[in-house]
Amino acid sequence: MKFEDCRVNSYLITSQIGEGAYGLVYHAIDMHTDKEYAIKAVVQSSGTSREVDVDGGGTFKKSARLQRRLARLFKESSNIVRIPSIDLESIANMSEANFQKLPLYREISLHLRVHHHKNIVTIHEVLQSAVCTFIVMDYYPIDLFTSIVDSKHFTTNGLLVKKVFLQICSALDYCHEHGVYHCDVKPENLLLDADDNVFLCDFGLSTTSAYIEPNVCIGSSYYMPPERISFDSAKYSSSKVRDHKLKKNCPSCSGDLWSLGIILINLTCIRNPWLKADKKEDNTFYYFTKDFTVLKQILPLSDALFSLLSKILQLDPKRRMSLQRMMKEVSSITSFTNSGPLSKVPPLAKSVYAKFTDPVVTTKENPSSEQYTHMDKSNIDENPFYSSSTDENDQGREEEQEDSDSGSGSFGTLDTDAGFHSSFTSTSCDSDNDYTKLPNKMSLFEKKFNELHMNTSSLTN
Ligand SMILES: Nc1ncnc2c1ncn2[C@@H]1O[C@H](COP(=O)(O)OP(=O)(O)OP(=O)(O)O)[C@@H](O)[C@H]1O
């Protein structure tokens, strides 16, 4: 289904640019200003939070359902829909109790709390129809994954690696200072403008909770810290003890730090160290937990970067290097790799460091409140878009029943191509020290990374 030439208020949809587990993203042009925007259309699932209702089939069904709803919406309004804009401040101020009623708004609210940072995608409007919610954001033409893998943009420019990495750190630092933990930091959720400035997006898994519930939150396994994958709740019979252990073992903040370590490897080595930080399921990771120097065996790291990564990728989340420290060390590092163009990189002058890490918080103007539908308490309780029993909603419930019948499972969305084995790996590992034979199932994603730059022999010799 295509919605080119359909209009939402003054935004003319020109093409679809993204399809995630929870929404469809369109490129649009504001007909008054000619400015480009990205509009994410998301659909409310009644009463479910985002992390528990996804699986491979469910994802497909969700976007298909959203497409059907949009098609009906545009058809009924002859391709031009006019819908009210919700006051952004009232969304940003929504409480946990509000999120229970409108789970979809958690993502938007947490994103709005931090979008003033210069390296976080700005939300301009949130439009609420009876069918779905449209989030109007700044548009960026490329994501960091495509830039690293397809454009090979970072292979020769150490200064660019530093700039982008420091900007990501600065954005996350700002989030953490404001009590927002992203929990899904990965190159696909980092967008780039034409001047190589990076912008964090997709707050769909973000949380304000200081510790994160493990084993349920779906994210990309490549970037997920080990404690989120292998925390064994069943071990604790008392919920008090379990919560205490969780607080101690799964701090949300440290999970984002781990993801940053993997992104630093992506930027400098153009590959991922493992598919999943799970000792039982991933042999490379298993060997890494026994001996950190495995990283040097499988990646072309300089001594300085190896030393830095050893402090970031600490298995104990409490021992991971702080964001501030990480930023300083990346700024002063003089070599990322043991050979090639990234083996010599300049340390940054103080002024350049300040420029890269400056949050430049701007107070955005909020147009007059009369234009807006306020998301106050009464509004949420009686939100006609949410709770009214229209045919649309009835059908939605039926579809949701279909979704839940299809069964959902954690990690169901992983992009794993079990059939592909890199020649760098073998299917068995005879001795604990035989790192050159690390078995590893490569995903299409990993395959792309590997094909690009690092052939396997150069990594293991
Ligand atoms: N502001 C934007 N500008 C340009 N492209 C964007 C923008 N926001 C999102 N996209 C594109 O759309 C894709 C999906 O967006 P997003 O990650 O927000 O959706 P999602 O449904 O939460 O996806 P996921 O399944 O990864 O959680 C992104 O990976 C990106 O390619």
From TrEMBL:
Catalytic activity from the UniProt record: L-threonyl-[protein] + ATP = O-phospho-L-threonyl-[protein] + ADP + H(+); L-seryl-[protein] + ATP = O-phospho-L-seryl-[protein] + ADP + H(+)
Residues that hold ATP according to the record: K40
Region Disordered: start-end pairs: 363-415
Bias (Acidic residues) ranges: 391-405
Every Protein kinase domain range: 11-337
Keyword Nucleotidyltransferase applies: no
Keywords, sorted A to Z: ATP-binding, Kinase, Nucleotide-binding, Serine/threonine-protein kinase, Transferase
Major enzyme class: transferase
Biased composition (Low complexity): 406-415
Compositional bias ranges of the Polar residues kind: 363-372
Cross-referenced PANTHER family: CALCIUM/CALMODULIN-DEPENDENT PROTEIN KINASE KINASE-RELATED, SERINE_THREONINE-PROTEIN KINASE CHK1
Family of this protein: Belongs to the protein kinase superfamily.
Record-given protein name: non-specific serine/threonine protein kinase
Gene from which this protein is expressed: SUVZ02G3640
